[in-house]
Amino acid sequence: MEQAKKKRISDEVFTIIIFSVLFLAVFFTFAMLNKNFASVINILNILKHVSVVAIAALGLTFVIAVDHADISFYMSSCFSAMLMAWLIAKGWHPVVCILAGIVAGCCWGLVSGIAVGKFKLPDKISTIAIGSIAFGAAYLFSDGAFIYTNFPSSGITSLNNARIVGIPLPVIIMLALYFLAYMVLERSKYGRQFYAIGANRKAAFFSGINVNKVIVISFVICGGMAAMAAMITTAAQGNGNVKSGLTLLMPCFSAVFIGNAVFRKPSVIGTFLGAVFTSMVQNGFTLMSVPFYISDLVVALLLIVAILSSKFELSSVGKKSAAAKGKAVAAQ
Amino acid sequence: MNKKKLFFLRPEFALVWIVILVYAIFSVMRPEAFLSWENLMEILRQSSSTAVLVLGVTWVISIGEIDNAFPDIAACASMLTALFIRGGMSFGVAALAAIALGVAFGALTSLLVIKFKFPSLIATIAVSGIAKAIACWIGKGIPIPVTTAGTLVYNIVWYKFLGIPVLFLLALALYAICFVVQEKTKFGQYVYAIGENPQAVRETGVKSGRIMAMVFIVAALFAAIGGVLMMGIMQSGQPKMGSSFFLDGFTVVFLGAVVFKMGKANVAGTLIGAILLGILTYGLTVVGASYFMSQIIKGTLLILGVSVVTISKNKQRGKVGVLTYE
């Protein structure tokens, strides 16, 4: 038993080493190919670019942790973006607009959460339906047109341009959210409930966890985080774009599952590394002026390779632990 | 008792009545656009390509997995056909090549899901990313118009045989084949057995991995065929047509799961679902409904379908012991 545990740990360390080597290799390849890649300005740019995907993926981490999937978040983020833009065009204060957008995102998450957590509908299909309704509702504000009105004067763009001690504000927001999520999900009793449900729902139920409530909360967090991602995109683009969130699906799932592959469970740090990794690759290709579809292709391939590498075992003992998808970790 | 009830009054046939009801409502609202043989046939023709696209997804849902990749595989197949035709190939050869590539995507999905134990959601998200990227790559992100596709594709798409569109007859033929496979072969039985209890099927000694692999490959095959047909209809390869089929496809399959086999996705039901969605799409366009309205209606229908499926499944299984949390 003792030995089995040791071997599993060495397997995990092995995956982390593989990932770090891959990460550094990609970084230095880009740095060699392009002089600007490793500059401070570009690294800050990457982090700024990361912040959108990373924040949305952070919300998704909670849903994946309870062993569900949410396919509505990227469509509900479109709704939040349009709501914010519409309120700004109406001349409201940006803070109010942002809060309204986040509340709207949480509400869409609540709807998904109730459908999945309370009514036990199949998660993937029902969130596709709810997300599509949210995406349709995003067309209510301007019939699908961009919203520019009031944007430069309202001051929402300063959310994107502001810097605190030289670090862009979106990056600071991202780091703050990640710190908060880390404390909640991995350093508190409350956060263990998410993993307990993900590992074994029945066991969680019998240990006195309110399973339905925690599932609903995870979806609400996911919706709210998606809205925050929408807020940063809206501020960065300086307009309300109905389709702003549609590109989030693959990078977010990649980020969470690359993290899942490296640390053998959906974790906050893993998601962050996954998000940085995918964004770094996208940014690297953009600097080399490679068209967007190539970087999409590479992100898809990375997702496959990352998960494959976690299936690679040093010993046969570890195989069971991988199949349990980190359940053993949560059960400890 | 149940058997004495006339077959068309059973709850399994409710959706068929709904289709007729929806058609009747639209006919009352806009008689000039609905009440004629030509218009009915036009609706059937337009539903045919969607119907073919999602035919294979039916079985993916039946075995309890999910396929996110089918719209992008269709888009990729349509782009590839357009590319080959522009490169001087005949339509038949180009279509076959595109369909072969579609099957390759299906093989990749099943390799990831069955051999490497990926969750099907992640595997298909990755495969759809690859398919979408290749579709955009082919035309550098813009559609490829095809004007020289030849008479074969023109006949398939527009020709009418005895007043019935050939495209619809083609879809009907494909559905008939799949219906026979589903109802009369071991393969069809195992598909539903896996959906019910994969563990039990595996332990009976059935090679369930092979069956699941086949299901994913068939889904990709029909998605590719649908994509080729869409190329014929639109007269161009469309790299981004995938997104519009995403919601439609699942709505069709889950509406179909409500008919004939209560709570289980099945081929005949999917055809009825596709026709209902075709009538709705056509009707909403004629009435002039906004994108928001149509999206809400489709989304609500999907939720309704899913709810009925879930409820009927719970009824079949019954509640177990003290586990009241479910």
TrEMBL record, chain A:
Keyword vocabulary terms for this entry: Cell membrane, Membrane, Transmembrane, Transmembrane helix
A Pfam family this chain is assigned to: BPD_transp_2
Primary location group: membrane
Residue stretches in coiled coil: none
GO molecular function: transmembrane transporter activity
GO annotation, cellular component aspect: plasma membrane
Transmembrane segments: 12-34, 46-66, 73-89, 95-116, 128-147, 167-185, 211-232, 244-263, 291-310
InterPro entries: ABC_transp_permease
UniProt keyword annotation of Transmembrane helix present: yes
Record carries keyword NAD: no
Topology class, membrane: Multi-pass membrane protein
Signal peptide: none
Compartments it resides in: Cell membrane
Full protein name: ABC transporter permease
Organism annotation: Ligaoa zhengdingensis
Automatic annotation (TrEMBL), chain B:
Superkingdom of the organism of origin: Bacteria
GO cellular component: plasma membrane
Transmembrane segments: 12-31, 91-114, 121-142, 162-181, 211-235, 241-260, 267-285, 291-311
Subcellular location: Cell membrane
Keywords on record: Cell inner membrane, Cell membrane, Membrane, Transmembrane, Transmembrane helix, Transport
UniProt entry tagged with the keyword Disulfide bond: no
UniProt membrane topology term: Multi-pass membrane protein
Keyword Oxidoreductase set for record: no
InterPro entries hit by this protein: ABC_transp_permease (IPR001851)
GO molecular function: transmembrane transporter activity
First-listed, main subcellular location of the protein, grouped into a coarse class: membrane
PANTHER family in the record: ABC TRANSPORTER PERMEASE PROTEIN YPHD-RELATED, ABC TRANSPORTER PERMEASE PROTEIN YPHD-RELATED-RELATED
Name of the protein this chain belongs to: ABC transporter permease
Species lineage: Bacteria, Bacillati, Bacillota, Clostridia, Eubacteriales
